[in-house]
Design goal:
60% of the residues lie in helices and 7% in strands. By secondary structure, the protein is mostly helical. The strands form two sheets. It has a three-stranded antiparallel β-sheet with strand order 1-3-2. The chain has three domains: 77 residues, Arc Repressor Mutant, subunit A (Orthogonal Bundle); 96 residues, Arc Repressor Mutant, subunit A (Orthogonal Bundle); 135 residues, Nucleotidyltransferases  domain 2 (Four Helix Bundle (Hemerythrin (Met), subunit A)). A hairpin with a 2-residue loop joins β2 and β3. α1 packs across α10, α4 packs across α11 and α13 runs parallel beside α18. The longest helix has 22 residues.
Length: 340
């Protein structure tokens, strides 16, 4: 019998090995001390390059990610990773209390748009260190909307974009867990990236072009972020661009021409399947994802494009994940071909 989603977070915590837990704690401690994520060079000096890369591969992209910014490599925790670190249970409890505060305040006054640290501290009886922790959690979870002002001591944020959803929830602890696990899924991958490549490219380790790999990793992180804050259209557009670039790159490396001009995603996927880079009919490219170029041209928006929902956005994310798994498996050095 499947375990209820709300219990999965505790299960993930129990399954962490002591070295994995220490690795997460190191990343979180660095973020709290420096207000930024750890540069790969410093982390490798602290825990060892091989150990860091092994943890990156074993924990998965839903927990910890390697990325590049301005030509430098970094490691960061996803929000799920934050909740799995040593301070995770305290963080979870604190964020649930905050969401309850926002829900109750919004229920009493639907016109409320902003929440300030002084009001939250007074209502929840928070110490200064708890308020600082809550500030970090709100920023990283994206449970705010309409702008923000994060100072060294005081902070102000807009109420969450999905504040209406909070009104219907009696158990915000369960709501938080289901929300986080939906947006940061952790799966056991049959074809993990080689450890020596994981930190260099994360989920896109098999893309040879370093600039393309960096851009795709950045877009992928942004696509998951905007879906988390209900940016359905932006999520679909980003996923469409990622898939187009991934498939075109894979076909180019295989010495295959996709035809003249800009080929559609459906065509690129079909050609990739013909060359056994993908399993037949394995990438569900719906009308929204398939028509993603039109979404960036307001004059060509269709009625369907104007009514994109969570369903299309999450389907687009899952299609990218499926493509990543199969192209990684089809890359020389993987143990099994795509489609198995």
């Amino acid at each position: 019998m499947a375990q209820p989603p709300a219990a999965d977070l505790d299960d993930f915590r129990r399954r962490l090995t002591p070295p994995e837990r220490a690795f997460l704690d190191t990343l979180w401690a660095f973020y709290c001390d420096h207000n930024r994520w750890a540069p790969a060079r410093l982390l490798h000096q602290h825990v060892g390059t091989a150990a860091a890369q092994a943890h990156l591969a074993s924990l998965g992209n839903g927990v910890v990610q390697a990325y590049r910014d301005a030509g430098k490599s970094y490691y960061r925790l996803t929000f799920l990773g934050v909740l799995l670190a040593g301070q995770g249970e305290e963080s979870e409890t604190l964020l649930v209390r905050y969401l309850e505060y926002v829900r109750d305040r919004y229920r009493a006054d639907p016109s409320v748009e902003w929440v300030g640290s002084q009001d939250v501290e007074a209502a929840l009886h928070l110490r200064a260190d708890q308020s600082r922790l809550l500030q970090r959690l709100i920023r990283l979870s994206h449970w705010w909307g309409g702008g923000s002002a994060f100072g060294d001591r005081d902070w102000t944020v807009g109420v969450p974009i999905d504040v209406d959803d909070l009104l219907a929830e009696a158990d915000l602890s369960r709501y938080l867990r289901e929300h986080v696990l939906r947006h940061f899924p952790v799966t056991v991958q049959a074809h993990a990236a080689p450890a020596e490549n994981a930190a260099a490219g994360g989920a896109f380790w098999f893309v040879a072009d370093a600039q393309l790999r960096e851009r795709l990793a950045s877009d992928w992180h942004e696509a998951q972020d905007v879906c988390h804050v209900l940016g359905w259209k932006s999520c679909v557009v980003l996923c469409g661009g990622i898939l187009e670039a991934l498939l075109a790159d894979a076909l180019k490396r295989a010495g295959v021409s996709a035809g003249r001009g800009r080929a559609s995603l459906v065509h690129l996927a079909a050609v990739a399947a013909e060359r056994r880079l993908l399993a037949e009919d394995s990438l569900p490219i719906g009308s929204a994802l398939g028509g993603f170029p039109d979404l960036v041209h307001p004059g060509r928006l269709s009625r369907a494009a104007e009514t994109l929902t969570r369903i299309e956005a999450e389907a687009a994310l899952e299609t990218v994940r499926g493509c990543l798994r199969q192209l990684a498996a089809a890359t020389p050095g993987s143990s099994r071909p795509a489609g198995h």
